[in-house]
Every structure is written in structure tokens, then in C-alpha cells.
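>> Question from a student workshop board

For tomorrow's exercise we were told to take the sequence and the ligand below, predict the bound structure, and bring the output to class. My setup keeps failing. Could a helper post the expected result so I can at least see what it should look like? The ligand is adenosine-5'-triphosphate.
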Amino acid sequence: MNPIIEMRDIQKHFGSVIALAGVSVDVFAGECHCLLGDNGAGKSTFIKTMSGVHKPTAGEILFEGQPMNFANPRDAMDAGIATVHQHLAMIPLMSVSRNFFMGNEPVRKTLGIPFFDHEQANDVTMEEMRKMGINLRGPDQAVGTLSGGERQTVAIARAVYFGAKILILDEPTSALGVRQTANVLATIDKVRKQGIGVVFITHNVRHAMAVGDRFTVLNRGKTLGTAKRGEIKHEELQDMMAGGQEMVQLEGSLGGTV
Amino acid sequence: MSETQPTAAMADERIKQRSRLREAMIRPELGGIVGTIAVFTFFMLFAFDSGMFNSQGIMNWSQVSAQFMIIAVGACLLMIAGEFDLSVGSMIGFAGMMIAIFSVTLGWPVWMSILITFAICIALGAVNGFIVIRTGLPSFIVTLAFLFILRGFTIYFPQTIERKTIIGGIKDVAEGDWLAPVFGGKLFPGLFNWFGEIGIVDTFERGTRAGQPVVDGLPMLIVWALLLVVFGHVLLTKTRFGNWIYAAGGDAEAARNSGVPVARVKILMFMFTAFCATVFATCQVMEFGSAGADRGLLKEFEAIIAVVIGGALLTGGYGSVIGAALGALIFGVVQQGLFFAGVESSLFRVFLGVILLGAVILNTYIRRIITGEK
Ligand SMILES: Nc1ncnc2c1ncn2[C@@H]1O[C@H](COP(=O)(O)OP(=O)(O)OP(=O)(O)O)[C@@H](O)[C@H]1O
Ligand SMILES: [Mg+2]
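>> Workshop helper replied:
Here is what the output should look like for this input. Compare the format with yours to find the bug.
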């Protein structure tokens, strides 16, 4: 089986800052590929090159075997790459259904003029949110009135609904409580079983271990390697993320609680 | 999830049942609606016999309100898209002056002068938008620069060409032109004649026009205002482009990441604002028969105030065209009403300030309920 997307030796420089110094990652259908790494490791920057937000300074992107050059997020989305950004691509002042269809509004023609089909948008939104286990007060409820986990779920539901082949989630669990985290992890599992390739970014090794099939650790803009599920232990991942030995020392001083 | 429970059991115990009335009240335009009712009640009580509510009086404040509405629609959509245009007032002066120079000084046909002026002004709107997008500077600053630049040209051109700051004689050159009546004409003269006959509208009792109705048609200014309000409202609430306007102003980066062409949306809204300013200017020039270098002064602020009274958020992403139209109506009625009521005209500002404050406080409260904003 070939990967859906293959990122080869991606580099990204912001002026004099080298955010990515050659990162290679591939994602297969139906797997959950976890990206781990400390703050500033370059995880968000990396997935932004995958979703068309940033153009890589160097490197190659193969999508379903074909070289790809995303000019903007729209291109990546049209190819089937949906992204839930770390700072959610959700607008709090707008209603759930307006957010759900933002950039993909359904239209219905009346007198030849394409109007926003609010009825369909509202129905679909309510239905999709119900499937995710969230009961909205109404489709016109503003996103600003939802909790963090609920917003996260709207974003995921939206990506899945629009037929993503790759779903990228940038730290979807970092701001969530226990139960909401469990919900998001369950959603990831559900999405993966539909044959979608999931890229799951997190700091939390336990969350990664819960759903991940493969794990790639980034450190200071470089890949430290990719491991399959079962080939690597929780502690090893933890060490790699912190860049090796410091973690061992830290762990010692904290009495093994990290 | 497949283990869905029956809906009755799913009704969330943490959602309070809210009454229909409350539900209907909680809307962005509430401030504008309450303000409109308050203003009309006030003048009905204190100025009913002043002539403010006979046909001429109504036509008077309707026309003033319509002027405000035309620029408020543009300002409203632009503000929701997250930007300001402070050059609206100068653009009004500039557009009027261009029409006068082209048609009177250069002797071009009026229709051509109008069309070329529209093209120039819309292009200037696009330049405004383009600079804002390209530089990332606040539109407040960029359009402030244009406020001065355009006003400067509006004074400079007539002074160097004609040695004066007012150019008249437009009524004469507009005689028989096919496009001029679209801005300066009146609709349904027959209907208003009939209104005069049956007594809905007063008629002149003496003079050359004896027997004719004092209001002899619906001014195109008002028609433009209504058309623009309907257009703006439908565009904003019923089309996908409207969703992009909200999104661009709500969070430009989130919108861009979702595939909304934010730059295009914002530039188009700057162009639309310029279009509205030019409509305003053309109607005014056709009505007065002249263009003056000081026309449109401070109009940008009046438009923004009307929009804010109407419930829009200054920082973008939220607002209503209907609200803005009501804001413009309040503005017009108060301005003319105080005149009818014989109140010292300086009190207009006091009145306006009080309404502005009241409406904005109410709007903020409503918006927090709707959006969960802190
Ligand atoms: N637009 C930008 N301009 C300049 N530098 C940037 C830009 N975006 C990211 N960087 C830099 O690139 C590096 C990687 O940032 P990135 O956001 O990818 O980290 P991250 O791994 O997602 O971290 P976190 O876990 O905190 O989200 C950082 O040093 C950051 O300062
Ligand atoms: Mg990040």
C-alpha cells in the first residue's frame, strides 16, 4: 500500500529562523500518525506546510504518488487534506452552522441566483453534531458559547463531513478535560476506522499511545525517527521528546512522577 | 454515536427553557429597533403639530435618512468584514466634484461623466483595500490618508481650473440626459398626483403649481437607499459571500485557513463602500445642481455611528444591515425632528450622543448573550 501523503525532507525558514531543517513523514489511509515534540519543535509549522498555509522552503510533497504544490489552504482542502489548527479555525461570533460550512457553503438557486442554503446547512450541522454526541441548542448557536471540547468536535466533524482523506489535528486535546479528551480520542479512532489518515499532534505521550499507530518525534526542526506501535515504550517516547538524557535527570529529581 | 438515546431523554438539563418573546427580542438589531421606537414616540408626543408628520415633513426626514442609509450600508458591510473607511466623506466631495468638472467644465455628456466618476471612485476604493491588505496596516490609518488626499484634490481641482470651490450649472447640462434622472429623478409622479387629488398629500393652493401635490414623486435618493439596504441585507445573510464577510471580519486567519478568499472579500467591500459614497454624491449633485469642495464633511463618522447604533461590532465579524438602516433612520429623524420641534440645533449633538450611548450599551449586552463573548 502506498501512503496518501508523503512529505520528503521538508525545510521551512522564516527569515533567519530555521523552523524545519528537513522533516520526512508519510501517512497511510486508516492510520493515526502521531507527531510529538516539545514547544517550538516545529510541529505546527510542519503541518502548515502540509495544509497549504506555508510553502516549504525546500523539500517535496507527494500526494497519492503525485508531486504536489499547494498554493493556499483551499488547494490542500480540495485535495482532501483537512486541518484543525491549534488555534481553532472557528469563529466564535458566528453560529455553529455558519462555521461548519465556512468556505464550503451549500447553495440553492432561486431565480438563477445562488443563495446560501441555510436549511440544508442547519440540518446537516445538527445531524453531524448529534452523531458526535453533542446536542446543540440550535444550529444558530454561536460557537463562542460552546466549550473547548465541543468546538474541537465541531471542527473535527466538519473535516470528516467534507470527505477528508487526511485529517490533521494540531494539539486537539491540550486544552481539554478528562472526559472531553476521551471523547476526542474516541472520535480519532472512529475517523481512522473510516479509512481516513489522521495526523495527531500532541505533547502528551499517554494520549498518543492511546490511539497512535506510528509515532514521529520532532526536535528542534528535525525528525528523531519514526516508530511503530508496540516497537516503542512510553518512557522511550517521553525521553526522545525531551531530547534524551535531561529527562532522565528530571525524572530523578521529580521522583519519577513525570 | 450509535447508542443514541431517545431525544426526549437527551434534552439537556443544563439548558433553561427560554420564552418565545425573549428569543425574538435577542437579535442584533434590538438596539436599533428600541431606538427607532423611542425616537418616533418622542417626536409624536412633542412635535406632532409641527408639520413633521405631514407629507412634506415625512419626505423631508425620509430624504435625510435615506442619505445616511446609503453610506451606512457600505460602512456596515465593510465594518463586518473587519475594516473601516474614513475616506467616505472626502470621497463624496471628490465624486461630486469630478462629475461637475467632467460635465460642466469639460462639457462631456452627463451620463459619461457619471460613469467615469463611478469607475474612478470604485478604483480608488480598490486601491484603499489593496494597500490595507498588502501592507497589513490598519485600515483606519490608510483611509485616513485618503481622507486628506481626496479632500485636497477636491479643493485643488476647481480652484486651479475655475478659481472657485463650487461648480454649478449641472441642472442645465443634465437636461435630457438619460442617466441623470436615475439619481436625481422622481418615481411614480402619477401616483402622487392621485394622492394629491384624494387628499393623502397636500396640494399647492396658489401660484403656478396650484392644484399639484406638494410631494410630486418618490425621489430616486430614497429608491437607492431602499435598494442598497435590501441588497446589503440579502448579500450578508442569504449568500455564501455573506458568510465570507462575517468570517473575514470575525477572524481573518481562521477564515483563510478554511479556504475563504479573505483578501478578495475585503477589497470588494472597500469598492462597495466607494460605490455607495459615489451614489450619495451623484444624488446630491443632481439635487443641488452643483458640486462643492466641502460636501460630505464628517460623513464617514455619521455612517459609522449609524452602523454602531445598528448593532455592529467595531472590531468586525458581527452586525446587521437592517440595524444600520435603522441607525440611519434614527439619525435622520432626530436631526430633522429637532429642527421641526424648534429646538436649538446644537442640542442635536446632545440627543445623538445619548442615543448612541444607550443603543451601544444595549447592543453590547445583547451581543454577549448571543455570542457568549466575555
Ligand atoms: N511565522 C513565523 N515566523 C517566524 N518564526 C516562526 C513562525 N512560525 C513559527 N516560527 C518559529 O518556528 C519554530 C517552530 O514553531 P512551531 O509553532 O512549529 O512549534 P510547535 O512544535 O508547534 O510548538 P508548540 O508545541 O508550542 O505548538 C518556533 O521557534 C517559532 O518561533
Ligand atoms: Mg504548535
